[in-house]
């Protein structure tokens, strides 16, 4: 009580003091804000300066070469692997994540919903190296059966084709990496989707139910359509994480540079995994930094796209009212 | 097109809290029945029990019977979704689907019923919008978002959406409380026209509105906070507003209610 009175009288008597405090605080926040900008710029500049000579000096074309050696290096295979693992991971994680979010928000009794919410949030907090080790030690041996099953029944899709008939007993493949990645991005997608579904006005849901919708029809009519932008941005954020994930992928992917859509064939590589696996012995770090620059640009674009989707959904809603 | 609703000793609960106690009431077809009473006396709760919207709320339940032309809507093997298709509802706050066009809003219920044919949908959408006195105002912009309409138009859009599935009964929970006087009049006119085809129940806190639009008025009240709401009196609107049988009804309509 007493301190409030003092503060009140103080601000009444000497407005110059609080004005000074204001100015100091404003300057501090401005510096903090500017620092973020400078930092991002510095990172980009560092990457460009280190990368440009490497790209120029590459005896082969940096963007079309698949192999990675000191004499010839290119990102064709690793970029391809990065995109393919990320897309496959999302193909698994988005339906599951959205399903989990729908279950939590629309079906589960409150206690189970809360519990499941905590568990998915905790999955997000697990360090990625733990996922990598789990993938390496637990998942890989168990992938053999799954891979054989997929090759046998879904080989005709091409994706799960096994041309050599030589599925490994320890399948370090694009597919294994995708599975680990999908588990890692699942919590982000589930958590954001959950918030998005929770935002849906209950009166909209009641409107659908009052028209005679079953619960699933209610979800399709009243919950999913207004949540589209939110789920898309959740997917993009998951994609951003999947593209950049390093250590977990490095542990379970084959580290063989190859452009092939046969995801069960041992091998494959991603930009981030390639950096992690070859940085130590690389005499010239330039080419690796160049590949890092490509990854940086890629994730930046994905994140900007996610923001754009959110922004546009926001203005659409406002212009509709 | 219109059916009778009858409740027998209907009580409604939210968990262990009883909101409505022992209401027995008959709503005649092709008439407008108004529910009036002080706030919190369970009008909305009772109304929502009539088409099984009450059970959407976790832990909410009822005791007693609700008959639609002698069929128990809570009977074994009866699906809530089917009941709600037959007994439609309009809410206090206009709630068109925000991402849908005017056309799609009206067609939403039909699509849920598996109607996909364009010609059939077109016909039903026009019929429903005409039925809701909205067609002339929106026919040139059916593909614009429903949220772009004024509040009163949105509420008529919601009525069009509700009647598109051709229900037997239409329940309205304070459909005008969020609207301006002109829009309110438009909805009241509409209710007058709709009663030729539907059984209509309207909850209203506005006694002039009850007097204007309804044939029968039911007065609910509660003894005090935390007490369940009860039906005090139901009779011809004319009689309720001029010569009610119950002292409590008279006190309420003359504004002497504490
Ligand atoms: N969703 C709910 N959960 C718990 N109690 C509720 C809920 N909705 C209404 N109630 C309670 O039920 C009683 C009746 O409310 P309601 O039917 O909304 O009254 P009215 O429509 O006549 O104002 C009130 O005591 C209210 O607090
Ligand atoms: Mg109410």
Please write out the topology.
The complex is a heterodimer of chains A (321) and B (258).
Chain A: H1 2-13, H2 15-57, H3 76-107, H4 110-125, H5 128-154, H6 174-199, H7 202-210, H8 215-244, H9 247-252, H10 271-278, H11 286-320
Chain B: E1 5-14, E2 17-27, E3 32-36, H1 43-49, E4 60-68, E5 71-72, H2 80-86, E6 87-90, H3 102-112, H4 118-131, H5 135-138, H6 151-164, E7 169-173, H7 181-194, E8 199-203, H8 207-213, E9 216-222, E10 229-236, H9 237-242, H10 247-253
Parallel strand pairs in B: 3-8, 3-9, 6-7, 7-8
Antiparallel strand pairs in B: 1-2, 1-4, 4-5, 9-10
Helix pairs in contact in B: 3-4, 3-6, 4-6, 6-7
The structure holds adenosine-5'-diphosphate and magnesium ion.
Adenosine-5'-diphosphate binds at residues 14, 19, 39-45, 57 of chain B.
Integer-rounded radius of gyration of chain B: 18 Å
In whole angstroms, the N-to-C terminal distance of chain B is 41 Å
Instruction: Find the CATH topology of chain B.
Output: Rossmann fold
**What structural class is derived from the secondary structure elements of chain A?**
mainly alpha
Helix-strand makeup class of chain B: alpha/beta
Major sheet attributes of chain A: none
Q: Which molecules are bound besides the chains?
A: adenosine-5'-diphosphate, magnesium ion
Indicate the percent of residues in helices of chain B. 25-40%
CATH architecture of chain B: 3-Layer(aba) Sandwich
In which order are the strands of the major sheet of chain B placed? Answer: 6-7-8-3-9-10
Which CATH architecture of the largest domain in chain A would you pick?
Answer: Orthogonal Bundle
Strand content of chain A: under 5%
Largest interface: A-B, 23 and 30 residues
Count all strands of chain B and give the number.
Answer: 10
Order of helices and strands of chain A: HHHHHHHHHHH
